[in-house]
Amino acid sequence: MNDKDLGSLLVSSKLINREELTKAYAEADRLKRPLERIIVDMHLLSRQALYEAIAQKMGYTYVDISALKVDEELLKALPEKFSKQIQAIPLKVEKGALHVAMADPGDLYAADQIQRQANMPIEIFFAGPQDIEETQKKIYVHKGITRDFMERMIRDDSEAKFSKDGMRENTSIIKLVDLIISQAVRDRASDIHIEPEQEMTRVRFRIDGIMHELPSPPKQWEGALISRVKVLCGMDIAETRVPQDGHFQVKVEEKVIDFRVSTISTIYGENIVMRL
After folding, report:
1. What is the number of alpha carbons within 13 Å of residue 176 lying toward its C-beta?
2. What is the pLDDT of residues 144-188, one digit of tens each?
3. What is the DSSP string of 99-128?
4. CB 169 within 8 A of CB 223
5. Interior CA angle at 210 toward 209 and 215, to 5°?
6. Which pTM does this prediction carry?
7. How much of the chain is helix, strand and coil, in % rounded to 5?
8. Per-residue pLDDT at 147
């Protein structure tokens, strides 16, 4: 739905008046942003009220996907590139049909592509473009670091012994750190956190102020993982009780990225924060 049609819909539905619409048009033109975002940003309507009005006009049910959690297997039905191309998100499978949220549910060609890709009947719902874009960032993030990958590395190195630095006797540590770093750059993370806990090692990215958790590496890899990062930035790997700071650079996809690293001792081990 273009901005003109959206404006007409909202005025005719008496959700906003013409004066408010004129101001919203002017702001959208000034900022070069879609009208729907301007209307929400100006607090003329809540995002839910706006999208419910659009959905009703289009003859579809609006679905709020702001807190959506999607099973990893379901993402195979709509891979990331395909999802972004057609602005659609998989919701769930119910009674043999894939429920899908689309920004343009009237796009029959896209719907047909989804059905072919999923190889099952689909039921279409409406979600706003902004909601879909934000949800895509959440559900497709870190797909490069999967539990399958972790399990494969554990299997490949089941006979390996761990040295203190974790590098000579277990190349999987090097692979894992490289993968975490490159994935953080691709996901535009501002920080990487490695946080030892009593029964697990938590690895998280901060993206747009939100913490996203990765699959946890094996607990027995924790010391080697932390040592590998400390070696990269020139820290003393033998010192674990005193906070340390360091830095290093890596080249990812033709870009040189600076990392500032700090450690702090906790009751369960050394916490590491890498700032991109």
Report:
1. 31
2. 555 556 666 666 555 444 444 444 445 778 888 888 888 888 878
3. EEEES-TT-HHHHHHHHHHHTS-EEEEE--
4. no
5. 140
6. 0.56
7. 40, 25, 35
8. 58
